[in-house]
Structure formats: structure tokens, C-alpha cells
Amino acid sequence: MLRFAPSPNGRLHKGHALSALANRHMADRLGLPLRLRMEDIDPGRCRPEYESAILDDLAWLGIAWTPPMWRQSTRFPAYADALARLRAMGLLYPSFASRREISEAARVPGIARDPDGAPVFPGDDAILGAAEAARRRASGEPAAWRLRMADALVRTGPLEAVTVDADGADPVRRPVDPALWGDVLLARKETPTSYHLAVVVDDAAQGITHVVRGEDLLPSTAVHRVLQSLLDLPAPAYRHHPLILGADGRKLSKSNGAEALQVLRDGGLSAAALRAELVPLL
């Protein structure tokens, strides 16, 4: 089982089309269903009109998928259960520093960075000061929840991930290093989950055997493997396809203003021409 899992917080661009085609290609090669999952855990950015546009773009591109479609916004109880299990193991702790406060702390020269370039969380005491951190802990205000990575890795021991080629063949076991991420965020104050937790829980619940996604998400596999191990969830095989870069050398993204498929369609690009452009990149 495979899945294509876009976020309905904007229009799809060529990078999404490549990922959808890569998933469809491997599903066909392996004779497995391809599911569609909307990663819509952010209610402030995800909109029904974007979901409708995604469905329209996939139909135009000729990407067939097997119903039913999942929405992560309906799955919060499952994520809460996973958090409760980790909390019972003593592997979670509350964090009160805001995103702004963490960003300001990140300006300190020499601070450690995770594989995405974000600061490795140094703890509330380091960001807020011990007195303010203690005050917030005692106040009962909403908290985010983070994984005690060092303790988690004592439980799991060394971890590996299985990678495969574009056809789902030639499996290779590779070591992963979740410690590079530090104490990752598993639930936000305003959203009772995170990408890392939701994707791991849902992949297991849907019986996903092969995960195909962009190589920018390759480092995230380490976080997903530690969560799979802690929660006794099966680990899929992974394929991380190349990215499409813009004229500025950065990957195409909604935040960078990547041209939407709808704009390209309106400009006369055919689905056949786009497929011919992207299939060699799989």
C-alpha cells in the first residue's frame, strides 16, 4: 500500500506532481493500491477549496487512487492515544517557549541545528530563564509536548531504515541518527499533534508498506523510525525522489511562490507534456 499525502494549504505545483507520479509508478510496479491522504492538521491554513483543487489537479494529471480518502483532521483521537502511550513511558515533557521565543534564541551564534536547519531545542530554561520557565510550568497554561530523544534512544537502540529504488526493488538497510533532531516537537499548543507523529500513526493505520516522497524529507525518516519503534508500529520501506529546483536553486514550494499547476494548465500545458517532463526524474 502506498499513499500520496498533500497538505490542502495551497495549490499543487510541479514538485507535487512529481511526487504523485512517483507514487503511482511504484504502486503500479508492485501491484499495490495508492491511497490519498489530506494532511490538514493546521486548521488556520488548510481550506476546502484547496482540497477540491488538489482533487481536480490529480484528475487532470491522470493519477488514479483507491478510496476512501483520509483527512488527518478526523484523526486527532488516534494521535492523542499515541501521545498518551509515550507519556506513560516517561518520554514526553511539556514545553512553554513560543515559536517567536525559540526563533530569537536561535540567533545565538554556534547554536546546534537540526537537519532542517532549525535550532535544536535547548530547553525552556535556556530560552526563557529558569524562573520564567518554572512560572509557566506552574501556571497550567497550554503546553507543547516534546520527545526526550536521549531517553527514547536508550529504549530503541540503534535504528535503521529500508530504502528502495523507484520500482520498489533493491532494498537496502541504512542506519539513521534521530539524535540529530534533538527533542522533537510531537504536539503543538494549538494543534494536538505534529507532522512527525501524525504521519507515523496514519501510515501504520492505513497499512502503508512503501513511502515515496521528496528527498527533502529523507532526514525526517530518522524521527519516524524512532517513533515507529517506540509505538511498536511497522516500518515501511522508503523512496526519496529527487526534487525539482526553481531558477533560484531552491526546491519548489508554496512558500516560495512556485507556479501552481492550475496556472500552467491555464497557460496551455497539457497533462501529457507534464508527465513526459517529469517521468524521467522519478
Please give a structural write-up.
The protein has helices at 14-30, 48-61, 76-88, 99-105, 124-128, 130-139, 149-156, 195-205, 220-230, 261-266, 271-278; strands spanning 2-4, 34-38, 70-71, 92-95, 144-147, 159-163, 172-176, 185-187, 210-214, 237-241. By secondary structure, the protein is an alpha/beta fold. It folds into two domains: 1-74 and 244-282, HUPs (Rossmann fold, 3-Layer(aba) Sandwich), CATH 3.40.50; 76-241, 3-Layer(aba) Sandwich (Rossmann fold). The strands form four sheets. Strands 1-2-3 form a three-stranded parallel beta sheet. The protein has a three-stranded antiparallel beta sheet with strand order 4-5-8. It has a two-stranded antiparallel ribbon with strand order 6-7. The longest helix is centred in the N-terminal third of the chain and has 17 residues, at 14-30. It is globular. It starts with a strand and ends with a helix. The model has no long low-confidence stretch (mean pLDDT 94).
Fold topology:
Blueprint: E1 2-4, H1 14-30, E2 34-38, H2 48-61, E3 70-71, H3 76-88, E4 92-95, H4 99-105, H5 124-128, H6 130-139, E5 144-147, H7 149-156, E6 159-163, E7 172-176, E8 185-187, H8 195-205, E9 210-214, H9 220-230, E10 237-241, H10 261-266, H11 271-278
Parallel strand pairs: 1-2, 2-3, 9-10
Antiparallel strand pairs: 4-5, 5-8, 6-7
Helix pairs in contact: 8-9
Structure characteristics:
Rossmann fold, 10 strands, three-stranded parallel beta sheet, three-stranded antiparallel beta sheet, 282 residues, 2 domains, alpha/beta
